[in-house]
Design a protein that fits this description.
The chain is α+β, with helices and mostly antiparallel strands. The protein is about 35% helix and about 25% strand.
């Protein structure tokens, strides 16, 4: 049997995902993918996105919230109220419900587009 492509692996992951915010995960996936030429794969047992280098990965261990871990060191140069933390190489966006997924959508798209400009996307 042929190995699944990265996109097929993510689709299979999402089919079996048991998370109370699964609909919000799907909404965020759509937002991330539509913001620019990012590719999707599974990393750290969750959907992850990259363009030339790894950029952002879902953390779905907490059933009360979604964490988007922006783990490319250049993320610290982008200023945004949705990017939390003061680590030297990463920031986190927290999404607790559908309203937050919706209200943070435009800013999330801006952050991704700004990052793509930095890395030449």
């Amino acid at each position: 049997m042929a190995k699944l492509s990265e996109a097929e692996q993510v689709a299979a992951y999402m089919e079996t995902l048991d998370h109370p915010l699964k609909a919000e995960v799907e909404t965020l996936r759509t937002t991330i993918k539509s913001a620019g030429p990012l590719s999707e794969r599974i990393k750290w047992n969750a959907p992850s996105y990259y363009y030339k280098e790894d950029f952002v990965t879902f953390n779905l261990h907490d059933k009360r919230a979604i964490r988007l871990i922006f783990h490319h060191p250049t993320i610290v140069t982008i200023k945004s109220d949705i990017l939390e933390g003061d680590w030297t190489d990463r920031r986190i966006v927290y999404i607790k419900n559908a309203d937050e997924a919706s209200s943070k959508k435009a800013e999330l798209e801006r952050v991704i587009k700004d990052w793509l400009e930095i890395v030449g996307g």
